[in-house]
Write a structure and sequence with these properties.
Helix content is 66%, strand content 1%. The longest helix has 35 residues, at 289-323. It is mostly helical.
Length: 632
Amino acid sequence: MLTKPDNFRFNFLQDHKWTFGRGRRRRSPPNSSEPSPTDSQTSPKEEEPQKVIVRIDQMLEAKHFYEVGLRLNQKEEGLFGDVREAEALAHHDEEVNKLAADYRALEEHVLETLKLSLSLGQVSLEALTSAVRAMKQQEDQDKLWSQRDHTPPAWRPSGWGKLHDSTLRSLVEEQMDTDPQTPPVDQVDQSTIQADLHSMGRRLKEDLQSVVNVLKNCYPPELDICNFYASLYHETLSARLRKIADFGLDDKDCTFLLRWVNEYYPQILQNPELASEINVESLGKLLPKESLDPLEHQYLDKQQSELTRYVGAILEEAEQDWNKGEEPKREDGCFVSTVAYDIIQFINGMVTSAERVVGDLHKAQKITVQLKDLMQRFKIFQNNIIKKNTPNSQPLIKANLGCIEQFMDFFEKKSHLFTEDVQKHCLDVLIDMKESAHTYLLKPVHNGLKPQYRKLGTSDWLNKPLFEKLLVSLEKELQDLQGSTESCHQKLIGQLHQEVTAEYVKRLLKGQIKLKDMRQQLKAYETVKDDAESLHDLFVKMGSREDWLKEILNKIAEVLKLQDLPALQMHVVSLGTSYPDLSEKHVAALLKLKTNLTKDNRRIVKDTLSDTLRETSGDADSRPFFSGVQVK
């Protein structure tokens, strides 16, 4: 049987002696221990045309190797097959020597034919098929002699199976030194190593296609010649690549070699016409771990340094523009920055490419480890912008909001590009940056509204249209918040909507107004309901989508109106289950506004809420609100 790394040899079932007689297989007769001299001949008539070729040398010249082997085996059986005949003919040295010489001649011609296996223009398929059959034939004759108990001739065993394998191994090594006829790819600016790898790759592909499409038909299926050739090419390539890897490569050649091993070579073998005949998984990696590890470290270290350098350069350029007093560019009336886009494209391309080069996403993720420091640097840059508060600070922060949103979307949707700790750290930094940017942009708005805030929750608030003044001032302040992208502006306005609502509730719970009877409480109910509607309408017009805030004010208004204790209990419980961050302090402050509610009743309502919250986990979809409302 053909040899390959896993001891691939000529190996046929002993119980099924078969030949290639006109493409058919024949079993030997039952109980037959030795083949007859005419075994594998379908009929005497089929041999008659060959009787014209009388001499062995003529048959060899005609490349009838299998028929030569039959004749020599018959003569061998006549000289050595029977013990008594062997003793009688022991002195027929001349015939034995002549037979040995004929076997040597047959072996020489068969091996010469095998050496041309991949040069089919120089040898016919019929000749190659005959050579393969002749080798199988002699392996069978070796097996026959191994079952006898008398001395075999000197040429037994012939070992032609091993000769076949070693011949093809040498052939493959020679082929890999020969540049294929296919026009080479553009090799401008390619190193010698890259050109050599391209050449070997083309040769590998062309030769394996020849094996699969042509040579396979010259071999019986059980010899699995396609996988044998694939293993020979794999071994040869592996040995050559190990020498290249040990040579010490520059970064360009290192990258190319890794990509060839992990991407280009598998692509060749995954070609449909090859993949159907070759067991790619059994071949394994072209390079062992001890050769790959140094190359991978060199490549990943280089990519990591390149990422750090590139991102650092982008941030440095943005800092320089800010220090010069430049404002970000505008698109459709919005301040924009390309910082995030440029960095995201670079990271995405680099990690994706690295995955192909090293053949492992987890290894490629190591490139991004420096992003934790780089995002921190981005945060420091923004903090400096806020701290110095220069004329171009607000425009730049509005542009930064777009960058923060892009980065957050990238880290969330492309999480496979990062290790878990890198993703978490960067997202945490970005959340902090978003909050600080919102605080910076909204602080002037709150400062401008402080005079109106102070009058909320007072007697004047119930009797005069104070809230209208707040809305007018608020609408004016909102104009200054324009300038960020639509989605960022929407979130900024939504944040302001929540903060103004929280300020409204905080002022109400301060207890500056005392609602002594049902009439005042009903008035307060109507005022809060109207304010909730007006506030909601204004913010929706400005882009907010935080509709849930209106419901909070409506629920608080209901508490102010209700007089029946059980109904009050149920409503406060509803408020607490919807917003689990509602505390006893908030409830106590709210109930204190209803001065006609006894202390015991207030305690009952609070206890009911506490008991309910202990037994339930609250609304899973609820958002925190009351934690942002400070009460004493």
